[in-house]
Design brief:
Elements: E1 4-7, H1 18-29, H2 33-48, H3 53-62, H4 69-85, H5 92-103, E2 107-115, H6 116-126, E3 130-139, E4 142-148, H7 155-168, E5 176-179, H8 185-188, E6 193-196, H9 203-210, E7 213-214
Parallel strand pairs: 1-2, 1-5, 2-3, 5-6, 6-7
Antiparallel strand pairs: 3-4
Helix pairs in contact: 1-2, 4-6
Length: 215
């Protein structure tokens, strides 16, 4: 059987929230700062009201309704190029592990609630094999604003990884997973080797109880 190393992305491989950083960039280049400010205000209200993250994420993708996939991919590539030209937001200790697993012939898999247009440039840059992420609903090349299941947040990450393991003949017991947040627990518990990336997060207490590696 094959082995894989599964990586959460935001605050695990990069030190930014890809969805929000891109949204800010997208609002600036489309000269739509009012829309951005309105979205951020509503987002903060949702967080204060403890709206489930699955709902918060669905609202995010509705912001791109009626955009073409082609334009979204183009802007996402330019956004990533811009990040690299400034100060690459890379978390090197985790990327060192990623490169180690590549040398050991593990499949490198991103698992994220973000979307493929934002994750593909990073995957190419780091040499990842596959991406498990939010799937956008597209009709005739146009984004509907909806997303398709499973939603790769919390338990959805476990479901996506389990399906991926079956299709790709992956031994999850010998595989690794890297995450930084308590929402990554289902993902981390899916494998035999779980790694808590950031010891400053709420995940640390659970990781210590489980005797997981802390990076």
């Amino acid at each position: 059987m094959n082995k894989a190393a599964f990586f959460d992305v935001d605050n695990t491989l990069i030190n930014i929230k890809s969805m929000f950083d891109f949204y800010h960039y997208w609002a600036e280049i489309t000269e739509n700062k009012d829309k951005y400010n309105s979205y951020i205000k509503n987002f903060k209200q949702d967080i204060a009201n403890n709206v489930p993250r699955t709902i918060v994420n669905r609202k995010y993708y509705q912001e791109f309704q009626n955009q073409t996939l082609e334009s979204l991919n183009d802007r996402a590539n330019k956004w990533f190029e811009n990040l690299l030209q400034k100060n690459p937001p890379l978390i090197h200790k985790t990327i060192e592990r990623l490169n180690f697993h590549k040398k050991e012939n593990f499949r490198i898999v991103f698992v994220s609630g973000s979307m493929k247009p934002l994750l593909e440039p990073l995957a190419r840059y780091l040499g990842a094999n596959d991406i498990l992420c939010t799937t956008l609903e597209i009709e005739n090349g146009i984004l509907t604003g909806n997303i398709l299941p499973p939603q790769t947040i919390g338990e959805g990450k476990h479901v996506a990884m389990k399906n991926y393991a079956v299709i790709n003949n992956i031994n999850l017991g010998e595989s690794f997973a890297y995450g930084d947040d308590i929402s990554d627990i289902p993902m981390l518990e899916s494998v035999g080797n779980a790694v808590c990336v950031d010891p400053k997060t709420d995940l640390i207490k659970y990781a210590k109880e489980k005797k997981w590696e802390i990076l």
